[in-house]
Amino acid sequence: MTQTARDIFVVGLRNAHAMETQARELMERQSERLDEYPEVKAKVAAHLQETNEQLKRLERCLESCGESTSSLKDTAQSVMANMQAMAHSATNDEILKNTFANNAFENFEIAAYKSLIALCGAAGVTEAKADLEASLKEEQRMAAWIDSNVEKVTMEFLTHQRQAS
Ligand SMILES: [Fe+2]
Measured in angstroms, how far is the CA atom of residue 141 from the centroid of ligand 1? Predict the structure, then answer.
């Protein structure tokens, strides 16, 4: 029983690590092209720092389960690959697609951390909980920021388009 929960937990940690690695790549690419949207750029840069810390937390959690982190294979998850493909298409409404993709990404991450936190007790790794909760809070803050800025970013995009035409 405990072993099963622990196995599920470890797989979940590895998947979360892959997810955050993809999130980092996505944000690194975005932040290079966000000069026209300084507020979004600053937020993405700040969340990039948080994401690096989240990766370290996940590695700590894996280590506390006795798992090696040296051979972490971050295999792409198809849902992420789709969002990435969408986000990378360099059309002029890229900022909107990135905003939608980031919104989806953050909510995906929130669900993943909630699931891991729920497993901590059954997996016998209560010491991992604080780290996972810290990451969850960061994801929730980022998701809330994106959610409350969709309209603003859209209108900024409209302004830029008008200026360009
Ligand atoms: Fe995130």
Answer: 9
